[in-house]
């Protein structure tokens, strides 16, 4: 841990239960729930809440001063066996928080919905979030020829994107009663597609691949979905993507040990703005861009990967006279999962919890963390 940085990364929960490597974590956008998926073919759900002894007399779950790291409790509430025959590699929540998609190495995508019932506790501080009720498979989407690597819902929940080792990106339209219609099969990449990420407010999709490139897609009224730009610059596999909360910037992380940030320069045009080097010594597998707790600015960007290190940057608009974003490393932690690779990192976007994130590692553990003043 770097002692000269203004913030410290503190572990608030180590969540056991997976019997093989944990691949991804995803925070429910509407309920106090965290989901994780694993090579053990299961999805686990955890509820979180501010401990009563800490939150008493305050409506702000972040207003706990030096006790922030001891203020939040996470509890396992449910497990979905899924029925996938191979590793569950990726998960994604629909914006409503009532539906979860799973992407598996068996090439299929599961769509899961919770049983009807009262007492959702969607935004309650009791941490229930309806997580204890059973989850049912509403539909199974088939089409990919081999391993599904990524799934992502659009900001409005009308579309689901999936990507695969078969080099394709599929876009599915979501209809009532868990009915899905394939709106396009995009074959722009020349190698394995590692992840897909929707713009936070527009129907613009980004994908990253083993072919070292990033593709951006938009809906064309005459040709359905088309690739509108290819972003080249990484020298090896692009593992991860993350949009800035404002949607003006797209970050990418690569096997070449760099993080690049691309800025929107037109309706369907992005250009390179920032490159971060030297922050990791091995492949960067995951990045997440959250609102953070800083004053103004563009939020906090975090990264992790094969070296087990977690870095957090405060991202600011370019200073006067410059076009390049300002980035300041504010927190860093080595060996976050001991000697194991860290496969996923994700910020919690829920109000009052913007300083909390989760990770998933090859050790099978899911960990929750907070970023607190040093």
UniProtKB/TrEMBL annotation:
Name the source's superkingdom. Answer: Eukaryota
Q: Where are the WD repeats?
A: 15-56, 81-113, 141-174, 186-217, 231-263
> GO terms for CC?
cytosolic [4Fe-4S] assembly targeting complex
Source species: Coniophora puteana (strain RWD-64-598) (Brown rot fungus)
Xref: InterPro entries = CIAO1/Cia1, WD40/YVTN_repeat-like_dom_sf, WD40_PAC1, WD40_repeat_CS, WD40_repeat_dom_sf, WD40_rpt
Q: What processes in GO biological process is this protein linked to?
A: iron-sulfur cluster assembly
Would you identify the family this protein belongs to, as annotated?
Belongs to the WD repeat CIA1 family.
The protein's job, in short, is:
Essential component of the cytosolic iron-sulfur (Fe/S) protein assembly machinery. Required for the maturation of extramitochondrial Fe/S proteins.
Q: From the UniProt annotation, give the residues forming the signal peptide.
A: none
Q: Which SUPFAM superfamilies does the entry link to?
A: WD40 repeat-like (SSF50978)
Q: Which UniProt keywords apply?
A: Repeat, WD repeat
Query: What protein am I looking at?
Result: Probable cytosolic iron-sulfur protein assembly protein 1
């Amino acid at each position: 841990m770097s002692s000269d940085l203004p913030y410290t990364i503190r572990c608030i929960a180590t969540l056991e239960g997976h019997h093989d490597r944990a691949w991804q974590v995803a925070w429910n956008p509407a309920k106090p729930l965290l989901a994780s998926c694993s090579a053990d073919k299961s999805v686990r759900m955890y509820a979180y809440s501010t401990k009563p002894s800490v939150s008493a007399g305050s409506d702000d779950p972040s207003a706990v001063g030096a006790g922030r790291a001891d203020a939040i409790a996470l509890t396992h509430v449910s497990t979905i066996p899924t029925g996938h025959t191979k590793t569950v590699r990726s998960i994604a929540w629909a914006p409503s928080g009532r539906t979860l998609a799973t992407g598996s190495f068996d090439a299929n995508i599961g769509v899961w919905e919770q049983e009807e019932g009262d007492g959702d506790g969607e935004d309650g501080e009791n941490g229930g979030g309806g997580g204890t009720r059973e989850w049912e498979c509403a539909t199974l989407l088939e089409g990919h020829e081999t391993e599904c690597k990524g799934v992502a819902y659009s900001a409005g929940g009308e579309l689901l994107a999936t990507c695969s080792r078969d080099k394709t990106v599929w876009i599915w339209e979501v209809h009532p009663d868990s009915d899905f219609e394939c709106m396009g099969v995009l074959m722009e990449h020349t190698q394995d597609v590692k992840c897909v990420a929707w713009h936070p407010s527009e129907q613009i999709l980004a994908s990253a691949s083993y072919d070292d490139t990033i593709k951006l897609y938009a809906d064309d009224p005459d040709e359905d979905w088309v690739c509108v730009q290819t972003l080249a610059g990484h020298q090896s596999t692009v593992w991860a993507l993350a949009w800035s909360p404002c949607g003006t910037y797209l970050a990418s992380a690569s096997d070449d040990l760099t993080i690049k940030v691309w800025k929107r320069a037109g309706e369907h045009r992005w250009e390179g703005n920032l490159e971060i080097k030297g922050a990791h010594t091995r492949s960067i597998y995951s990045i997440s861009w959250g609102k953070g707790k800083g004053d103004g600015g563009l939020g906090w960007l975090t990264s992790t990967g094969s070296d087990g290190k977690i870095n957090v940057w405060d991202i600011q608009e370019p200073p006067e006279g410059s076009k390049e974003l300002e980035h300041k490393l504010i927190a860093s932690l080595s060996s976050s999962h001991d000697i194991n690779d860290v496969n996923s990192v994700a910020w919690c976007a829920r109000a009052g919890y913007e300083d909390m994130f989760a990770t998933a590692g090859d050790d099978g553990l899911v960990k929750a963390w907070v970023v607190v003043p040093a």
